Amino acid sequence: MEQPADPRARRLFGGSARALGDLAVSPFRADRDRIVGSPFFARLNGVTQVISPGGSGLLVHNRLTHSLKVAQVARAIAERLTADPAHRDLLEKLGGCDPDVVEAAALAHDLGHPPFGHLGERVLDRLARQRLGLPDGFEGNAQSYRIVTSTEIRGAATTGLDLTAAVRAAMLKYPWTRLDHPDPHPRHLDPAPRGAAAPPEDPESGSAKFGAYRTEVDDLRQAREPFAGRIPDWQQTPEASIMDTADDIAYAIHDVEDFYRVGVLQQGAVAAELMAWQRECGHFRAITSPALAAAGRRPGAAIERLRRQLHRKDAWIADDEAFAAAVEHVREELVEGLLALPFDGSIEAEQYVARFSARWSTRFVEAITVTPEPDVRSGHVLLARPQWHEVQVLKFVHHRFVLARPDLALHQRGQARLLGTLVEALWEWLLDPEEESRLPRRLHDLVELAEAELHPRTPDRIGRARGRAIVDFVAQLTDGQAVAMLDALSGRSGALWTDAFVL
């Protein structure tokens, strides 16, 4: 079969479009099927989105259902934009936009997410850099890219999922490595692209967010090659921009749904914060930053801090009138709407949640536009100004009234300790010469893969290979597998723990 005409469909390993019977299958649709058929995708059903389904006792989103909804929103955006001749022509000049590419990238974007949500990501990064000596550390987006390009072993060769260049490029929310690609590195831009700046507490560590480890940088270059001359090296492709925007939309809407379902979001607390700011916005805007910081938990102070943060980080789009209108719209829809009646599990309540979600999703999808020259902190595909502010306010509600809760912090500190203990136990196992023949087969394979990727003159090559293998191994566990494996390694489990995927 001939190679696809679209250069973005060229695979790294020489594959091509396949056929099902007499029906030719688009290489991009085949990519989507490969992703959905991967064990890494199925694993996401057991990975926390924000709160553990087991701990909530109710149906809440996990990484799998989140990915499915991101894909749904992303495809809706792509289909809407490509149906509009003005948007379609601009997208073609920027490198193209295919709904199948966008959907596949959205389905794959969280494949590398470790156990226990974003907490697991932060803990593994700290352990990888400080305990295991890996300069690249750990990053969920880079781990997803590593999975589809390197760590999924198919047959005799390690080829990843053999995805097309377009889908791999569309997965790259942050198309740079942590420290050195492209050159000059985008963290040195002023302002830096979103995610490219180094963490303030560790300015020498490189970008806070990045799309690929050094071991996958050649693949990143190959995936981005068809877009050379159309967009800067550090800029998302249009399809990646759509996927990223869809992720933001799904996060803003569906996490609010979850916290309403489990009774965490209370009308009184949210109303007090939003309405206090609306009543006293003039006063809040006039006070100094130290006085605002000293206001602590005074209703209205937190959302004023958000307003100032948006101006500080995103002056290109931040607007006080749009912010005030967003606060009012969220108050009407959330405080006077969704939160007005506690969730009781009834059919009526479920329908109410579904209508809330559909209304917001439609509002956001219809507000998407394409710009030929985006700000450095934006992509080519973005929300209109009013809806951009609404997403920020919805995400604020999530951060303020869920992530800041002491009970969630208590739960997460335990999960962080669990991951640290598990990494340490696996490291000791790898170093035990008497246990080499009894290592989990997947861990043994990952060590060999990591060692083969490193240059022979790499300092402490064996140690770094073992460290990367441990990170890859732990990142592929579900929440339940991580807990069960530590129980077994700690001698707390009374049963043999066997899981063919892991061992």
TrEMBL record:
<dbReference type="GO" id="GO:0006203">
    <property type="term" value="P:dGTP catabolic process"/>
</dbReference>
<dbReference type="InterPro" id="IPR050135">
    <property type="entry name" value="dGTPase-like"/>
</dbReference>
<dbReference type="InterPro" id="IPR003607">
    <property type="entry name" value="HD/PDEase_dom"/>
</dbReference>
<dbReference type="InterPro" id="IPR026875">
    <property type="entry name" value="PHydrolase_assoc_dom"/>
</dbReference>
<dbReference type="Pfam" id="PF13286">
    <property type="entry name" value="HD_assoc"/>
</dbReference>
<feature type="domain" description="HD">
    <location>
        <begin position="63"/>
        <end position="252"/>
    </location>
</feature>
<dbReference type="InterPro" id="IPR006674">
    <property type="entry name" value="HD_domain"/>
</dbReference>
<keyword id="KW-0378">Hydrolase</keyword>
<dbReference type="GO" id="GO:0008832">
    <property type="term" value="F:dGTPase activity"/>
</dbReference>
<dbReference type="InterPro" id="IPR006261">
    <property type="entry name" value="dGTPase"/>
</dbReference>
<feature type="compositionally biased region" description="Basic and acidic residues">
    <location>
        <begin position="178"/>
        <end position="191"/>
    </location>
</feature>
<feature type="region of interest" description="Disordered">
    <location>
        <begin position="178"/>
        <end position="209"/>
    </location>
</feature>
<dbReference type="Pfam" id="PF01966">
    <property type="entry name" value="HD"/>
</dbReference>
<protein>
    <submittedName>
        <fullName>dGTPase</fullName>
    </submittedName>
</protein>
